[in-house]
Design a protein that fits this description.
The protein has a domain of 67 residues. The chain contains four helices and no strands. The protein starts with a helix and ends in a 10-residue tail after the last helix. It is elongated and about 70 Å long.
Length: 105
């Protein structure tokens, strides 16, 4: 079977989920269960600390900053944006994709 036939055959079945993606989802589910049973204490600590940091950043965002030097408000903006990267790294760690969680290092 040549490449064109292979591509047409694969696209012909595009109404069904891809077997590769089903395998990836199964891997994520399996890793998630193993990770949570092995590192439950770490996960709980991370979740509570992350929640605390998010709440603090949210509160700081509503502090009156009129008397702050201009450069301070930019620092806070960068810090707020880094929360998404930190959560994403934790999510990748949960799912077993260790390369994607390099924010923890």
């Amino acid at each position: 079977m040549d490449t064109v036939d292979l591509v047409e055959k694969m696209l012909d079945h595009s109404k069904q989920p891809s077997p590769l993606f089903l395998d990836v989802l199964q891997f994520e589910k399996s890793h998630f269960q193993q990770f949570h049973s092995s590192f439950k204490e770490f996960i709980l600590r991370f979740e509570h600390i992350f929640e605390l940091v998010v709440r603090l950043v949210h509160k700081i965002n509503y502090v009156d900053k009129d008397h702050w030097p201009e450069y301070r408000s930019y620092q806070l903006l960068l810090y707020t944006n880094s929360l998404g990267s930190l959560y994403s790294a934790f999510d990748r760690l949960n799912k077993g994709f260790y390369i994607g969680c390099s924010s923890f290092t």
